[in-house]
Design goal:
The chain is an alpha/beta fold and 270 residues long. It contains 8 helices and 13 strands. The strands form 3 sheets. Strands 1, 2, 3, 4, 10, 11, 12 and 13 form an 8-stranded mixed sheet that branches. Strands 5-9-8 form a 3-stranded antiparallel sheet.
Amino acid sequence: MDKVVATALEAVADVPDGATLAVGGFGLSGVPNVLIRALHERGVQGLGVVSNNCGAMDSGLATLLAAGRIARVTGSYIGANKEFARQYLAGELEVEMIPQGTLAERLRAGGAGIPAFYTPAGVGTQVAEGGLPWRYDGKGGVTLASPPKEVREFDGTEYVLEHAIRTDFALVRAARGDRHGNLVFGKSARNFNPLAAMAGRVTIAEVEELVEPGGIDPDAVHLPGIFVQRVVALTREQAEAKMIEKRTVSVPAAGAAYATTGTTGGPVGA
């Protein structure tokens, strides 16, 4: 089955207001920016987003967040996203914070058909006991808090019950993909992308390089096409548009041949 869609706008054309989205990426790595921009262009709002973080440097999900299009975020990291923090504390945004490994497993479990699982992560904290602020009132008070979760003992160790995550749609970015939806993710971009793709009922992948079926060695496939419904091939310009979040350059020591960047770790020249 050929799953290639001509444009990103066409690929997200049926995403309605209020839809839930699992979105791949970690920081600026592996973020489906083209699909996110298409959603922004369509004006979709009231979205429930499941992602490790909510964009950075005015890119990725930060574009939708700044436009007031996101109603709820399920994630594990706020980081340096000041607008995310502002909306959360002002009571404009509902936020469910989850331990990072638990978030990853909840997404994977959703795609694998596992309704729930037990994990030791969060036992003895508000993750299990409840009371984490999901929504503030803008004055420092909490209007909605997380409920307590079931805790059960196995072999003398306590575990908390976590439910799988399924979303209406998933947006991911891959380095390579074929027309059947088989995907390969590049290096650190293989972060939350496979897991988000598994969790979506309709998964849309933007790929930097589109190949014909058979162009990817089956042993090299990171995510089988069974989890992907639509594929959008990026232009060369779109594929190469990759940002660096923080670039720092050290002063070379006397006689040093080059300096290094704290972001890439590679030489930048004498």
